[in-house]
Amino acid sequence: MHHHGTGGAESDKRTLRREFLAVRNTLTTDDVRKSALALAEHALELPELAHAHTVAAYVSVGTEPGTLALLDALRARGARVLLPALLPDNDLDWGAYAGEGSLARVQHGGRMALFEPIGARLGPDAVTQADVVLLPGLAADARGMRLGRGGGSYDRVLARLERAGARPALVVLLYDTEVVEHVPAEPHDRPVHAVVTPSGVRRFDRS
């Protein structure tokens, strides 16, 4: 154990990630599809998303809470939707979403295949233009602390937003069982402003 206290949080996070992923892996395609529609409906009730000009989002894979229904609804409303493309150093570049035909399946080494936008790359700083950033995650707690997937890409994004003085609304999309009492957090972790699940929206105070 490190004396800095981060070793404990990191190993707790790893254990929790495994547990939440195991539950996700029991979901059927039908469960995922139904949840995705409910998620989209509730997300669109968030004033921040209703009024957003630019939304940085992501394409869900496998049994993750589905995002495509939401991406299409946002586009139909006239919002500009940015999607990430993973860079070799785990940072994220961005491209515009122009409908399902604008996605390509990209295999990243031995890791999962991701769907990324085809078309012009806008650079990692494009995310600083977003009014709302939708974050993937595995859980969030009563304080709005998010348990990320552990790749670190979104830590880079959040740090970039902070450096730019950008203050988009941070929203995480989860299943109902993933909103828990407490997730381990480290001092640099930032709370999100809202969590959307298939049963509704939970907001946290912007402090």
Automatic annotation (TrEMBL):
Keywords: ATP-binding, Ligase, Magnesium, Metal-binding, Nucleotide-binding. Its cofactor is Mg(2+). Its EC number is 6.3.3.2. ATP binds at K13, R14, T15, L16, R17, R146, L147, G148, R149, G150, G151, G152, S153, Y154. The keyword Mitochondrion does not apply. InterPro entries: FTHF_cligase, FTHF_cligase-like_sf, NagB/RpiA_transferase-like. It catalyses: (6S)-5-formyl-5,6,7,8-tetrahydrofolate + ATP = (6R)-5,10-methenyltetrahydrofolate + ADP + phosphate. GO terms for biological process: folic acid-containing compound biosynthetic process; tetrahydrofolate interconversion. The keyword Phosphoprotein does not apply. Substrate binds at V59, E64. It holds the Pfam family 5-FTHF_cyc-lig. It is an enzyme of class 6 (ligase). GO terms for molecular function: 5-formyltetrahydrofolate cyclo-ligase activity; ATP binding; metal ion binding. NCBIfam families: MTHFS_bact (TIGR02727). Belongs to the 5-formyltetrahydrofolate cyclo-ligase family. This is 5-formyltetrahydrofolate cyclo-ligase. It comes from Streptomyces lasalocidi (Streptomyces lasaliensis).
